[in-house]
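User: We ran a pulldown and think these components assemble together. Before we commit to crystallization trials, I'd like a predicted model of the whole complex to look at. Sequences follow.
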Amino acid sequence: MCRLTDSCKITTDTDSLRSEIRDKSVRVVDVRRRDDYRQDHIPSSVNLPLADLLSDDSPERVQKLIQSLGIDDETSVVVYDDTFGALASRVAWTLEYLGHSDVTLLDTTYSNWKSLGLEHDSDVPEVHNRGHSVSLQPGILATSDYLESAKERDDVILIDNRERLNFLEQHIPGAISLPYLTLASRDRILRPKGEMKRLLENRGITGSSEIITYCGSVGTLSGLAYYAIKSAGLPNARLYVRSFKEWNNLQKPTAKQEDASYWDLSAE
Amino acid sequence: MRVSELDQSMSGPKKPKIDWSRMEEADNFAKTVKLFRQGKYDDDSFRRFRLQHGAYGTRMTGDYAMVRIKLPAGEVYPHQLERIAQLSEQYSIGSAHFSTRENVQLHWVILEDVSEILRALAEVGLTSREACGNSIRNVMCSPMSGVCKDEEFDATPYALATARFFLRNPMAQNLPRKFKFNFTCCEKHGMARIVDVGLIPQIREVDGRKQRGFKIFLGGGLGNKSYVGHQLEDFTLEEDLLYTSMAVIRLFDRMGDRKNMARNRMRYLVHDMGWDKFQNLVLKERAIVRATQSVVTHLDVDKMPDEIRRPIRISDQGGSATPDGYARWLKTDTEKQKQSGYRSVFITLEAGDITANQLKALAGMIGDFSAEGKARTGFTQNIALRYVHEDDLPLLYSKLLEVGLARSGALTMAVPIGCSGTTSCNLALTNSHRLAKEIQRKFLELKYDEDDDLRDSSIKISGCPNSCGQHGIATIGFFGGGARVGKDMYANYQMLLGGRSDGEARLGDTCLRVPAKRVIPVIIKVIELFKANKKPDDDLKSWIHRIVNSSGDTEIKTVADIKKAVGPLTIPPTKEEDPDFYLDYGSDASYHTKTGKGECAA
Ligand code: SF4
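Assistant: Here's a predicted model for the assembly, 870 residues in total across the polymer chains.
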């Protein structure tokens, strides 16, 4: 499977996507809100608003949803959003978790796609239901129970992708802070591989460690980080998809930065 | 668009003339951090290395650093501010801090990320090199240099050339202690007498020719013990500027105290030796420097005047009403330039803090409104847009209003300075940073910024005796400490009166200790005393000046009289009467003092 190899493809660039669209060899998924999609979108794309997916992301429902979008086990899927790749990542991860391995992220946002002058329209393609199997991939998921025991292990690195202030105020004990905004480069949702590797290596995120990412609530920012880690060639990543919100609700232990009135320097 | 603006041609964004950066320093920093974490570097040498590259430690933790970005002469370009904004979101807390020495600081940066910041800064020509440590710190220049009505010539090119000459210069890599240059425009805008080397531009007739030069002041500085600088000679010719600077640094390097950390700034050397002797040594050393430079060493002063071109208004909003508060803002945040039709606009921040979004908006406004296409950081934790055409001021005001940057008071006493205090500094005893903000909010509410009698006065606050908040030169200054009632501690400040940094520079006299939660009422009381006792043409500054010189002739004659009058306000209540009294500003935990190893950060 793709994700076990170093050369795993995480993103699709604009040129490749355009030719795949011409060849009709791809299913493009727009995860923005319904209204935005209706206005205009990348030609031939279908709409799967993230909120819709999250309203019930049980495997059975997700299976039905993607079948209705004309995605079968072999379909090559490219996902895009207009939120620096975070929403797209969460959807891509969900597909991956279901067992769909051929899914990548458009390497830029829809706004940027448009500002590059690339084609877009408001046509809604006709799609036919396809059959998709379910073969769950628990190896990319971290639940709170899993995390609780895993984070004691030496070979596990837990990454908090929220903004620095949130982290300083409260975080899961043992986590390191890697705000999602560090992951992008200019007009790409993820830094080029070399730069990503350098960023992670500086932070000691290397080798064969298992890396678990989390963010504030639904695993979007940390979904992007999940793909960032894979893009740097680190194969062993998991997403704590229910993230800090669940952790807090379960009243699990948290830590904070002591002895500093850092909030004073924050945006008010 | 107005017809008069049609004939102005479009010009691209201005690019900086000087690249201060070296990309390889970022790689080197990353490598060194790794070696340090592997234990291959001892704490002390790593610390020295880190400081030399502009990264401070952060209060009570080894994981975080503060990166201090140098802006020599305070100059900063729109794309550089945009980059700083972006870095603050990526690696810091989504806001940046303008310091009192024309640096911009990013706090709460993970030490391992510092190299990424250095790299990104290098891409836009900025550096943090030698922003900390025992080096030549950011070379300052008055934000009014080049536009000040009272200046004899613009010192900016000299400040830039000095910064360029000494940055990474081997002679300044291992000084006994930090070393600071301040260039200024005129006596009033000051700051030349409270620094290691302070310079005021002068034009004199020498050998029948009008020549440029400087009044140079040596050995001043603020700290645990502060001194006012001495004037080296009547007039120092422009071509002697570099030789003089080199001579002073060589002397300091040779004779400065390298052992006693608390007394190794140059001002102690000057003080211990006596001014006459030091002056003599400098003049002799200068003669040697002048004679022994094998190739002629000179400052590379770029005297090409900057291009001034008023940006084109894309859309004219003429006709729409000027928003409320404009007149107050115009009065308290802007200053007329010597160039007719233009003003400099000072942005009122709160203790120097600005959010990433505000920085980005500001970057856009510089391009849209400043005819010089860049901005200048100021002496008081702020930033100025200069060369804004008078006709464009109302529109600029409404743009600033949109992003919360149109507060009034930047040029008045209502906007105090506060060092970082317990928000990040290891040595801090109190939250001076927050106190400055609280005072500002209260005084703007009371409209003190509009009171002409208060305009030229200042309030400056440090979180400990170390003076990063420059309390010694404030009309009303404060430095933090702790005090207790029984076993209960509270944040307390020493109040000083009558400091100033202009032509009559002097350090403030201590008055009394004021609990943090009583600072605001005490200042208000001092202002009331002034109003009741002033003479018709007094302002607060001149009135206090008279009192510290014990020549008041009304009811309030001396500092002791002020002390007596405000004293009752400073008596601590019991914890039962007023629990809030025992909390410092910005904290909901009971107050206690706690400090770590100092690296001193403003
Ligand atoms: S050392 Fe400087 S920055 Fe720190 S509290 Fe003291 S005066 Fe403020």
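Chain B touches chain A through 38 residues (CB under 8 Å). That may be worth checking against your pulldown data before setting up trials.

User: Thanks, that helps.
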